[in-house]
Putative DNA metabolism protein (Desulfitobacterium hafniense DP7), 280 residues
Amino acid sequence: MFDGATLVYKYDGSFEGLMCCVFASYEHKEIPCDILPPEGQPGLFDILKTIETDHQKAQRVYDSIPIRISLEAQELVKLGFLTCTPQKERLIFLFLRLGYKVGGKVMGMLTDDNVHALQKAVRNLTCESHRYKGFVRFSIYNEALVAMIEPENFVLPLLAYHFSNRYPNEVFMIFDKTHKAALIHQAGRVEIVDVEEWELPELEEKEVEYRRLWQQFYKTIAIASRDNPRCRMNFMPKRFWKHLTEFYPEQKIRAGEAKEDKFQEKKLILGEQPMLPDRS
């Protein structure tokens, strides 16, 4: 048996792999001090144990959650795996072990640090996915709708149902630049695939016109006297602005103004320098 103070699990990074870590913990009667994804590095004195993914074992653990804890706990674990919170694997692992002991009341045990951290991470995930349901901006490329996002959490699985219902007859793709993945909808089928590197192609003339019309609409309905930048940033944080069509002109104008200010400043500095003495 390993010493639990230095034992570290390493798994393949999949949800099934994490469920197998839970299975291995009970099977070998050991509690690891951490669970590392493939890119994780153990400490100098840690004992590393690689957990192989077994779909049958993973299914047994997953099916046991609603039986021994609750359906809400099963959903929390599934969503918790999509979050970007540090050491999410350990949080899920300790949440499940506690849940197996006390049952469904674990969902209300917010005084426990692990339960509180996991629920907070899931709230952050669901809030971000809700925002992206309104902040995704599609562009037309070769008769397909394409959008790019840069979320903190892995929100594509939460966006799939919403956009598939909203555009059931369209071919569209949402590229997650942060996690190198793409949500693809075509012929009624939805799939999330890994994409290493991808950049948006050049805009077509038709798309440029669509963007111009949308920007004009955005300006037309705006009420200048009620402009409140601080309130806007509360509901629409700046990290979302990069891929919002309505903010493209504003970004370009500000970039142009900054460039012009730098040019004027440089011109002023050069103008204040004394002329070289005449050596004639």
